[in-house]
Each structure stands twice: as C-alpha cells, then as structure tokens.
Specification:
Layout lengths: L1 E8 L5 E4 L1 H11 L4 E6 L5 E7 L3 H14 L13 H10 L2 E7 L2 E2 L5 E7 L5 E8 L1
Antiparallel strand pairs: 1-8, 2-7, 3-5, 3-8, 4-7, 5-6
This protein binds zinc ion.
The site of zinc ion has 4 residues, from loops.
C-alpha cells in the first residue's frame, strides 16, 4: 500500500519523459513485493503511455504522427489555443497500470513508462498508488 505524487519538469512543447525510474523508486520505497501500481496524470494537456524506451526514434515517430493527424491550424473552438494538446492527451490516456512482482515493475524488455507532454514546457505532477 502507498500513494503519493512526484513532480516532473518538461522542457519543450511536446516531449516524452521516461518516468520509469521514479515510479520504480516509489515501489522500492514502499516495500511491496507483489501488487499493482497505478500511475495517474492529473493534467488535461498531457498523457501517460507505455512504449519502447530503447530507441528514442520511436518517441520521435509517435510525436511526429500525432502532429500530423491532429493539426495545429484546425478552426478549434477552445479559445485557449491548445486544443491539439487536449486531443492528444485524450488519445493517449491519463493513466497506466503495471503489475509488481518481487518488488519490481513488470514491464516488457523494451517498455518504459512515459509522461507525455503536449503543452509544455511546464512543471507537472504525477500521482501513483500501490495496492
Ligand atoms: Zn486548454
């Protein structure tokens, strides 16, 4: 059991930040051997996803295609001007769930947990809960 929040600082308008190490640190600190880890992003213009972390070109490709399928020049009604970021956040989702076994996050060989910034740079929060 355990829950908390940590901060991440994003450095550009759109980027993927690998937060696997921070999440694993909370798992280790909790002492939980077997359980479930929930990670939640409480922001409307950022997401969370699990995908390949070995080749950074994968992150570049995902961001490039998101920009292509969600145009910045569409006549959006939301006056804040960041509708593409809201749409990208909904597409990727706001949470991930990872099993914990032997005190370790159970991820595939190439998988990492990414905080997905779509309207940065900003200071952001990531919430986690371990059961
Ligand atoms: Zn907005």
């Amino acid at each position: 059991m355990g829950a908390g929040t940590f901060s991440v600082a994003t450095g550009s308008r759109m980027e993927f930040l690998d937060i696997t190490g921070q999440v694993q640190k909370e798992v280790a600190r909790s002492g939980i051997s077997d359980g479930i880890c929930y990670v939640y992003n409480p922001h409307t213009t950022a997401g969370l996803t699990i995908n390949e972390g070995a080749d950074p070109a994968v992150q570049d490709d995902i961001l490039a295609v998101l920009k292509k399928i969600i145009p910045f020049d569409h006549p959006y009604r939301h006056m804040e001007g960041n509708s593409p970021a809201h749409i990208m956040a909904s597409l990727l989702g706001s949470s991930v769930t990872v099993f914990i076994e032997n005190g370790q996050l159970v991820l595939g060989t190439w998988q990492k947990i990414f905080f997905c910034e779509f309207d940065g740079p900003r200071s952001r929060k990531v919430k986690w809960k371990l059961l």
